[in-house]
From TrEMBL, chains A, C:
Function: Involved in the biosynthesis of ADP-glucose, a building block required for the elongation reactions to produce glycogen. Catalyzes the reaction between ATP and alpha-D-glucose 1-phosphate (G1P) to produce pyrophosphate and ADP-Glc.
Name of the protein in its database record: Glucose-1-phosphate adenylyltransferase
Sites annotated Could play a key role in the communication between the regulatory and the substrate sites: 61
Entries under InterPro entries matching the protein: ADP-Glc_PPase, ADP_Glu_pyroP_CS, GlgC_bac, GlmU/GlgC-like_hexapep, NTP_transferase_dom, Nucleotide-diphossugar_trans, Trimer_LpxA-like_sf
Binding site for alpha-D-glucose 1-phosphate: 102, 167, 182-183, 193
Species, as recorded: Anaerorhabdus furcosa
Keywords: ATP-binding, Carbohydrate metabolism, Glycogen biosynthesis, Glycogen metabolism, Nucleotide-binding, Nucleotidyltransferase, Transferase
This protein's pathway: Glycan biosynthesis; glycogen biosynthesis
SUPFAM superfamilies the record matches: Nucleotide-diphospho-sugar transferases, Trimeric LpxA-like enzymes
Name of the gene encoding the protein in the UniProt record: glgC
Record's subunit section: Homotetramer.
Residues covered by the Nucleotidyl transferase domain: 9-261
TrEMBL record, chains B, D:
PANTHER family: GLUCOSE-1-PHOSPHATE ADENYLYLTRANSFERASE-RELATED (PTHR43523), GLYCOGEN BIOSYNTHESIS PROTEIN GLGD (PTHR43523:SF6)
Source species taxonomy: Bacteria, Bacillati, Bacillota, Erysipelotrichia, Erysipelotrichales
Keyword DNA-binding: no
Family to which the UniProt record says this protein belongs: Belongs to the bacterial/plant glucose-1-phosphate adenylyltransferase family.
Protein's UniProt keywords contain Nucleotide-binding: no
Protein name per Swiss-Prot or TrEMBL: Glucose-1-phosphate adenylyltransferase
CDD domains membership: ADP_Glucose_PP, LbH_G1P_AT_C
Annotated transmembrane regions: none
Length: 378, 371, 378, 371
């Protein structure tokens, strides 16, 4: 194990993401497509690679064969060096306890204490597999060490009026956390937890084992572990994050996050060569923009063929936009095809969907974004 | 799975891709925005299940060391297989001695050590798609000494100049090999790709070395033509020979078109390359792009027409780029108007207002130049 | 997916191996150490790599965190090229069926039909994770194709008097299987199934889905799927294997298999450079043989330090044999240490065990091999 | 994690490991049965969390291309990091011009492109263990211009001949750098490993080139000694300088002993290398082995005493090998009696009955020689 490798990341990737409907029918939420060529989980995994966090456990649960085999190819993120690795950690049968599902975020880690022991973890970095952001976890670890904290929680300043939707950290003037409130009706602070924690492993191990035995616990970091730390007077510090962060829990927010990328000044900046987002290496030729195509304000990736008009839209790998088709304010996921003269407005078109020639889907005045998950005939 | 050692040979001095060829060996030259020339021959080999492959190069190994790596991205099992970059290690007195026979002899130990009974030799500068499984199967069944890939063309008067052409009888037995001097329209152009037993290969290499210190492998083949049973094997589909700057320009331009490209890029025969992890390309509200191939990572704000644009290229608002090949990382500034220009990697075209070449004589802008 | 990649291997690695006692208390049987530096599962995995079978699913079930994280590092077997991979496939929660264990060898494959679909399998190679042998699966596939079989089963000739311990294939003169008998009291043939199958995937898929619905099935290849193929008159051929093959199910047989390797003419030949067995790359210096050491008939690997006497024994990685210690007819597993003057005879010493100076374990006249799984004091 | 670009420099012409050095550059020479010399400096860097590393070599890149690969086995993340083998690509007129400054200048673009503010330069032929995290931390805190690693030795009369030695005041400020000509017993020998800002490094490289076309980096350091704040940083523990065949022999022999080796090989500071997937070593009933280090994959049937035996070596029954270093793949036949011999890779000693050298002048048997 290398020197800097004593922080092991554990990505919670078991979410169903049911508000993404058909997009999560066959894949877990962290595997949902995003940004033209990525999947959501590429972001925490690339962050790990770029932060020199070389051992990553991915805690999967629900319908995860695609997610499991996707993250298992750890060379996509350069996490295939000698002592590196992305390890898929689903619930499993054990000698003493038999078969069990993960009962909560903390329980998922508790059930993998043997993995953390085996990897000789010194620190544990708990991450969520379905948030989009760029963060240097090495810097967060530095902060954790410097403040002498028992645990460090990454926080984001949110508008105070929205703070009631988040887990809110109330801190003293040194950013020491004095209180944690889950979705408070009257928030006292605007520091929202991002669900990103660094713990000193040995101590966390004790808390987890205690929590496991507690029949009243929901085995959750926010609801159980953090309050226990606070109750014991442990030192919890807030690590303030500035920058783009998005939980794409709904079709509308997924659409918005994609649209954000078209803006050349967007904060996420996937063009930054010093913090690349790595993903699967697909075999696809470069995109082809045809003779009569008309492309503006668009994000388009390899394998696409555009013969029609694309405005303010994101095209994923291998999509085909036929002649005279119009794509407006939309997101077209991999391998989808839009037939001649069809018109797509304010939609997310799921992968492999075919929109027949002449078909019209979506509406420029619709309040919500339309998810097109099945083939559309004229 | 093909039971043959792959040898990617280097080009002789008749191949001269001026400008681009000064900075890297031909196999490392960027092609169609995303690829390097060597990706095509290498993907042919690995898609055919070959896992022991030697790449012989004449000079400047650096760019290929990085592009090839250990071959994982070409699907070579790093334990069982081996992608080996071989490079003449002794100093060559004069450029004329820097030939393939010299490289084969210097690295003969690696050829002999291979446990494969056959070798398949091919240069990188011929671009086409072939399944060597079929070729080797036929080679073995027919008990020929040497199988030579060729392509029937009807533009030999203007293309493939300097290439070998095969003269064959009706059973495709090769009776002689002649240089294409542009005299005839239709010719059977040799792909300079050969299938033969390892034993015969080693024998011919030694024979070439003993015949003349200046002989290339193709020279000895020309000589043994009558003596050995050499048979042609036709290549179907698109073929390009990248041996001059205009032919490089032409092949890029042809393969822009999905109709032609679909001949070379098919789903079950992927062309592997080293990924760059570039973001998708962003088109601004002012972008005007048509009839172009664009790689990932670009920011396009200007006008692009009939172009091949490499990875991470910027075309600023106001720029007009027509019939151009822009290599990865180049920057085209606001006032630039380019027509029939090849801009090499990381060049910055900023202070030049207008550059106009022709397809027959495209203008070349040097690597990392600032103009 | 590359041309030759249409055969996907599925390694059944869920066995408890309970007759290996403490050796399988914390690891599944396929992860048990063997041959100085290997684990049992290195053999099927290296066979896959050497046969150009590039996509391998490992079906794990019981207590498998070590096995899972071990096989996940697919670069150990060179199975980390672009379209290659070793994929850990434990039982998982599904949209329709919820959580379920693997109910049998066939059920383990059935539950991973989505994986095989995703990998675009054309052939499925079913392997066992706990057998030691070298086999060219590409050659077996050639045989399968040439004989036009629906399924091919690798068979081994066993002494007829032992045939009642195996699944026996009764064949016609062309090696077409006409009958399958599980542990027959009166064997009609000496061709034992090695539990290695090649199936054409599409056809197998149908059989598996039918079998899944059959409430009377034990969901086992030998007991259910193969008999169903035979009942339907499908063409099943036997692929005769010659060479070393061993199921190391007991302490005695595990010891024997290790001892076999000391014989310079052993059939397994782990020294063959054309068919290497790949394994974890450990950081250990070369072995050191001390001034007064006495080493004969031994297999010793890197990291070992030998100051005493080692006769007819196998030393695994990082074992230390102190001065005047005597190791006779024994197998010493990784990181075990034997103190000064201690004597070990006819034992398997489990990993990390310490044998105190002067202690005596094992007996040269014992019928069975002694498993030493706990520290021994004098 | 160290925020520095690593540069592994090549040795100057005072280093001459005769025989072994003819077939590969010094960093690629086999060491202690399992390793190559470069593994030590490279493991120091990657264990310190450095992921951008350049290896500059003078000639014969082949063996290093294969040994280094993309650096995965040294724990370099292939996406975020980069292990780059750099090799002067323009032809050098004469050997004296083939110096590190030339290589730095030719590859300056790759140095400038790095986003690291510091560089750490070290040659491969000094073997020791150091955590650069600590060195850089102290370098930054002390605001020195250059930190130079050194080792206090008391055998400078016979060892480290030709190496730079540091003259320091009591605060470890370096007042001058002098060559060790074997005059004094105790000296502070420079490890020729330097920590400095990238900006200053580039400045010094340019200054060296402008001063003399024959200057090495160490030459310019000697000059700027008074001008810049250069400070020594002591290395603790075992140090070997592999610059001659006898010193190569001695270091191998010393590190045979676990007591000495335990200084260099510790659990939390692994020495990474390219694995060979060799089987364990097999000792026959006739084997007689003592006081030796033996790598995996060997078959030992004869007598081996005080030796370092590389991977996949065979020592037949009847052979007697004492005080020898046998490199990987060599074969020692039945009747051979060797004492103080270095047998290079894949050599076959079969027809020679007796070869006796001395530790000061070990006999060298050439690579793949059959004697």
């Amino acid at each position: 194990m290398r020197q800097n490798n004593n922080m092991v990341a554990m990505i919670l990737a078991g979410g169903r993401g049911s508000r993404l409907f058909e997009l999560t029918k066959k894949v877990a939420k962290p595997a949902v497509y995003f940004g033209g060529k990525y999947r959501i989980i590429d972001f925490p995994l690339s962050n790990c690679a770029n932060s020199s966090v070389e051992v990553v456990g991915v805690l999967t649960q629900y319908e995860s064969v695609l997610l499991n085999s996707y993250v298992a190819r750890d060379h996509h993120w350069g996490l295939d060096a000698k002592d590196s690795g992305v390890f898929v950690l689903p619930p499993r049968e054990k000698d003493e306890t038999g078969f069990g599902e993960y009962r909560g975020t903390a329980d998922a880690i508790t059930q993998n204490i043997d993995f953390l022991d085996q990897m000789k973890a010194e620190y544990v970095l708990v991450l969520s597999g379905d948030h989009i952001y760029k963060m240097d976890y090495a810097d967060m670890l530095e902060h954790h060490k410097k403040t002498g904290a028992d645990a460090t929680i990454a926080v984001l300043e949110v508008p105070l009026k929205e703070a009631n939707r988040f887990g809110i950290m109330n801190t003293d003037k040194n950013d020491i956390i004095v209180e944690f409130e889950e979705k408070p009706a009257k928030p006292k602070s605007n520091l929202a937890s991002m669900g990103i924690y660094i713990f000193e492993y040995k101590q966390l191990r004790k808390y987890l084992l205690q929590d496991e035995k507690n029949p009243d616990s929901s085995h959750d970091f926010g609801k159980d572990i953090i309050p226990n730390y606070l109750a014991d007077g442990k030192r919890l510090t807030a690590y303030r994050f500035k920058g783009y962060w998005k939980d794409v829990g709904t079709i509308d927010s997924l659409w918005e996050a994609n649209m954000d990328l078209i803006n050349p000044n967007n904060e996420l900046d996937i063009f930054d060569l010093d913090w690349k987002i790595y993903t699967e290496d697909v075999n696809a030729v470069p995109q082809f923009i045809g003779e009569n195509a008309d492309v503006n304000n668009a994000l388009i990736t390899q394998g696409c063929q555009v013969y029609g008009s694309v405005k303010n839209s994101v095209l994923f790998t291998n999509t085909v936009i036929s002649q005279d088709a119009k794509i407006i304010d939309s997101v077209i996921m991999p391998n989808a095809t839009v037939g001649r003269g069809a018109k797509v407005t304010r939609c997310i078109v799921a992968d492999n969907v075919e929109i027949a020639p002449g078909a019209v889907v979506g509406n420029k005045d619709s309040e919500n974004i339309l998810l097109v998950a099945k083939n559309v005939s004229k | 799975m093909v039971d043959a050692l792959g040898i990617i040979n280097f080009e002789d001095s008749t191949a001269d891709i001026e400008g681009l060829g000064n900075y890297r060996p031909v196999p490392a030259i960027s092609f169609l925005g995303r690829y390097r020339i060597i990706d095509f021959v290498l993907s042919n080999m690995t898609n055919s299940g070959m896992s022991q492959i030697q790449v012989h190069i004449k000079e400047k190994p650096r760019s290929l060391i990085e592009h090839l790596g250990t071959g994982l991205h070409y699907n070579i099992n790093s334990k069982r297989g081996k992608l080996r970059l071989l490079y003449g290690e002794s100093k060559v007195m004069s450029e004329v001695y820097n030939h393939d026979i010299g490289s084969f002899i210097q690295n003969m130990q690696y050829i002999e050590d291979s446990n494969k009974p056959y070798v398949i030799i091919a240069p990188s500068y011929m671009i086409y798609k072939i399944d060597y499984t079929e070729v080797l199967k036929e080679h073995i069944a027919s008990q020929n000494d040497i199988t030579v890939l060729y392509k029937n063309v009807d533009n030999a008067k203007t293309e493939f100049i300097g290439c070998d052409t095969l003269v064959m009888d009706k059973d495709k037995h090769i009776t002689s090999i002649e240089k294409n001097r542009g005299k005839y329209k239709t010719r059977a152009v040799s792909m300079e790709a050969y299938v033969l037993s390892k034993r015969l290969f080693i024998e011919l290499v030694n024979r070439a070395a003993n015949t003349s210190a200046l002989y290339w492998f193709k020279d000895i083949l020309r000589e043994v033509c009558g003596e050995l049973k050499m048979v042609g094997y036709p290549v179907r589909g698109y073929v390009a020979c990248i041996n001059t700057l205009p032919s490089y320009f032409k092949a890029n331009m042809e393969l822009r078109c999905p109709d032609i490209a679909s001949d070379l890029f098919v789903e079950d025969w992927p062309i592997h390359t080293m990924t760059n992890d570039s973001a998708p390309t962003r088109y601004s509200k002012d972008a005007q792009v048509c009839s172009s191939v664009v790689a990932n990572g670009c920011v396009i704000e200007g006008k692009v027409e009939n172009c091949v644009i490499g990875r991470n290229v910027t075309v600023k608002k106001g720029a007009v780029v027509k019939n151009c090949i822009i290599l990865p990382g180049a920057f085209i500034g606001e006032s630039a108007k380019l027509d029939s220009v090849i801009v090499d990697k990381s060049a910055i075209v900023h202070h030049v207002k207008k550059l106009v070449g022709t397809p027959e004589a495209p203008i070349y802008v040097k690597r990392a130049d600032r103009i």
